[in-house]
Structure formats: C-alpha cells, structure tokens
Amino acid sequence: MEKRKGKHNIILGILFFLPVIFLLFLYPAQHHYNALDIVKSNIIDLNNFQSSTGEKILLEEHITVLGFLGKEPMEQVISASNIKELIYDKFKGFKKFQVVMVAPFGSEEQTELLKKEIISYDELDYWHFLFAEEDDIISLYNSLQSTTKLDESLATQQIFIVDKELNQRGRLDDRSDNELAKNKPVYPLISYNCIEVAEIKNKMSEDMRILFTEYRQKRKGKFDSTARRAEDLKSTHGEQEN
C-alpha cells in the first residue's frame, strides 16, 4: 500500500514539474529572440497588377511570399510545388498570410495549368496569381534586393518575404554556428531558392515563423525590436575591411 502511494506521489510530482521545466526551456529562447532582419524597405506594391480572379491584391498589410513565374509558368512547376508543400500548407492558417506569384500578360493560360498541377484537396484561397506589363514586373523586382536577375522570360527561382509595411525580410548574417566560431566573413540570405528543399524547409520556414512571432508580440504590446538594418551590415563589412 505504501509503495503504491509512493508511486502515485512520484507520478503527480512529475506531472506538476513537467510544465515548469518546459517553461524554463522556453524562457531562454524568448529572452534571446531576434526579429527577422529588414534587408530592404519601400517595396513597390501591386497597384498595377491584375489578379486571375479580378480581386484587388496588395502586399501592404499582408505577410507575403512573393515569386516570379515568367512567361512560361509551367516551367516553374517544381518550384511552385515546393512552395505549396513546404510553406503554403504550413502557414495558410495564419492571419494575413498570402503567396503571390506574378507573371506577364499573355501567360494566363499556362498559369491556370500550373494552378491545376499544384492544387490537391483544397483550394488556394491564400495563393494569388497576378499579371502585369513586363515593365511593371521588372520595376517590382528591382525594388527588391537580390543577388540575381530575372531571366529572359522574367522568371526566377528565388522567392522573397515581404512584411505588412512593405519591407523585404531576410537574414543579414546567415553564418552557421561553425562559421561564426571560425569568424568567417558575414554573408546574407535575402531571398530563398525554391528548388533547394532544405533551404525552404529549414531556413525559410523558420524565418516565416519568426516573422509571425514578431507580429503576434506586437499585437500583445510585448515586442522589443532588436532587428538589424542594412546599415548594420555595411558597418560590419567596414569593420572587417579596417
């Protein structure tokens, strides 16, 4: 009887202390929380773009994954499928989240085929296909910071995160712990290659989670911004050169 009572007390003790231990593990993570970096501001909004549904779609007031399909959208089916499975399906339940894919006028038919390819059991309620003149697509892309250019068809495998205030988000310092320990030169991650599954699944997914956490904390009035800006990266480069 005494043994049974002792076991009962041990189980109750474990059940009591487990949540406490869990919170203690969470506290350091929250304490060292850093916002996702702003790498570029004043991204052009989508006022000159037309959606496939006729609905007015804008970047402002949304957390957007932005991509460029080009004149041959079906050539981007692998990229689009990766975004659908690794990002869209994971975050589609979050408030103000959207995926926006832009293409030039004349590619509507192929875009519709692409849409049918990536739809599974659900509708793409928070995924929008937008069309515009080539010059407007180039202007939008040029308002972003990127290490690559659009190809001849106005497509790229790079996708971008744009926040509610029209800021491009990413990492000003993407060095691994090992690279930090070896004091390797700073390099950024300002867009994400949607062909690289590991990059989308691990880095981009984590960055999206951080951004949603930031806005959730802002709504609760608990957000203390520690986000670095592009000037900080310039300063770091300057220190390395000196």
Mind sketching the topology for me?
Elements: H1 2-31, E1 37-40, E2 50-51, E3 63-69, H2 77-91, E4 97-104, H3 108-118, E5 127-132, H4 134-143, E6 155-162, E7 168-170, H5 177-181, E8 192-193, H6 197-220, H7 230-241
Parallel strand pairs: 3-4, 4-5
Antiparallel strand pairs: 1-7, 2-5, 3-6, 6-7, 6-8
How would you describe this protein?
This protein has 7 helices and 8 strands. The chain has about 240 residues and is of the alpha+beta class. Helix 2 runs parallel beside helix 6 (about 195-220).
Q: Hey, roughly how much beta strand do the residues contain? A: 15-25%
Number of helices: 7
Shape: globular
Provide the residue-averaged pLDDT: 84
- Give the end-to-end Cα distance, rounded to a whole number of Å: 75 Å
| CATH architecture descriptor text | 3-Layer(aba) Sandwich
Reported by name, the CATH topology is Glutaredoxin
Instruction: Give, in order, the helices and strands.
Output: HEEEHEHEHEEHEHH
- In the predicted model, the low-confidence regions spanning at least 5 consecutive residues are 22-32, 226-242
Quick one: how many beta strands? Answer: 8
Radius of gyration: 22 Å
For CATH, the homologous superfamily is named as Glutaredoxin
